[in-house]
Amino acid sequence: MEPRPAAPRPRLCDSLGADQTPSASTLNAARAEARPAGRRAPAVAAVLPAGGSGERMGVPTPKQFCPVLERPLISYTLQALERVCWIKDIVVAVTGENMEAMKGIIQKYQHQRISLVEAGVTRHRSIFNGLKALAGDQPDSKLSKPEVVIIHDAVRPFVEEDVLLKVVTAAKEYGCSDYDLEFGTECLQLALKYGHIKAKLVEGSPDLWKVTYKRDLYAAESIIKERISQHICLVMDTKDENHVGHRLEEVLKDELNHVKVTSRLPCHTGRDLDQIMSEQCYSYVCVNVMTSDFEEIRKLVDMLEESNLSILYPVVVISVYFLDYKSVPFDQKMENLMQIREYAKEVKKRNILLCGLLIYYPQDEHKLQESLRQGATIIATLIKERNSGLVGQLLVA
Ligand SMILES: Nc1ccn([C@@H]2O[C@H](COP(=O)(O)OP(=O)(O)OP(=O)(O)O)[C@@H](O)[C@H]2O)c(=O)n1
Ligand SMILES: O=C(CO)[C@H](O)[C@H](O)COP(=O)(O)O
């Protein structure tokens, strides 16, 4: 048994926005429903086999450590399990040569309740090593013996709380059918052969698919991007209802009709933004009406940093300026705006992707509408793609 990694820093809130899992209270209600009256909840732990070499992926790095949006795949799987508050311990089996790298991942992404064991030469042996650590008879182990152990491949990042609950409930409630004995998958057979325990096959969801080939990494990245782009916070530095910024909001809502767009006042005006940080929004559009400096953006970036939001996912911030035909001279405004390049480089280190967007604001109504549409399309693309190559760019609509 490996020593536990260094204590993590303060945690993000448990029910992260990137997934569609129910909150802890939903789960408690679901568990209460699922549990026959008078029965107490079983103590649950999880074992994650993560000791494979990922031969079919065809890259030197084992697939569980391959980056998805610059974060190792296994970190997403850990996140999916650790947000389930009723899983007490998570034991991960990794090879000796990847042990230090795994500790680094746990520390960097602030994972909790994780213990590491050495993997075996086969998946079954890796799982067996994890189970031994949970057996409750290891002299140095701080882990207590659970009643139910969830076995979950480290390369299945999208597991949902409800399917885990079904598995645990089935493990407690059901016996094993002849069908399961005949057609059960390998862990099931292992449990039957060596554990002399009953087992039940529970239907999973299509999301439980496993990252096996290189194309699966691209699929995983697309799914994650889509999940974290479902909410946009629009920060508008004017209360003027007639300002063109509000028209941009309308066009954005129209363009992205499946996305939640919330409008907020700037950071200095109080707690509005605190609230949105707690909703775990990963996309911000700041409409700068009054100024062409970066004061508001700086405040927003500071708040994002404090909230730890960008530890797990890249946060997109788009700073929007209107190129008003009657405003300050263009070259003077541009000189200020060009500072975005250096500042964006700095905040990129904190996983915040900052871009500027200039929206042409002509007198002609038709042309203005065209500019706003173009602006909304650029915003939608920046948020959906989260392309770090565009960081610091001033785009023009
Ligand atoms: N000796 C092994 C082999 C596999 N696994 C883990 O079991 C899970 C499912 O296995 P699989 O997808 O087959 O992974 P690999 O063996 O790494 O893939 P490949 O067969 O392409 O080499 C993975 O999380 C993998 O890391 C393990 O813990 N120990
Ligand atoms: O995909 C696998 C390895 O390639 C696993 O063997 C598969 O997940 C086994 O399923 P279970 O743990 O339910 O027996």
From TrEMBL:
Residues 1-36 are annotated as: Disordered. GO terms for molecular function: D-ribitol-5-phosphate cytidylyltransferase activity. It catalyses: D-ribose 5-phosphate + CTP + H(+) = CDP-D-ribose + diphosphate; D-ribitol 5-phosphate + CTP + H(+) = CDP-L-ribitol + diphosphate; D-ribulose 5-phosphate + CTP + H(+) = CDP-D-ribulose + diphosphate. GO terms for biological process: isoprenoid biosynthetic process; protein O-linked glycosylation via mannose. It is an enzyme of class 2 (transferase). One of its GO terms (cellular component) is cytosol. The keyword NAD does not apply. Pathway: Protein modification; protein glycosylation. Keywords: Cytoplasm, Nucleotidyltransferase, Transferase. Its EC number is 2.7.7.40. It is found in: Cytoplasm, Cytosol. It holds the Pfam family ISPD_C. Residues 18-28 have a biased composition (Polar residues). Residues 230-376 form the D-ribitol-5-phosphate cytidylyltransferase C-terminal domain. Homodimer. Cytidylyltransferase required for protein O-linked mannosylation. Catalyzes the formation of CDP-ribitol nucleotide sugar from D-ribitol 5-phosphate. CDP-ribitol is a substrate of FKTN during the biosynthesis of the phosphorylated O-mannosyl trisaccharide (N-acetylgalactosamine-beta-3-N-acetylglucosamine-beta-4-(phosphate-6-)mannose), a carbohydrate structure present in alpha-dystroglycan (DAG1), which is required for binding laminin G-like domain-containing extracellular proteins with high affinity. Belongs to the IspD/TarI cytidylyltransferase family. IspD subfamily. This is D-ribitol-5-phosphate cytidylyltransferase. It comes from Panthera leo (Lion).
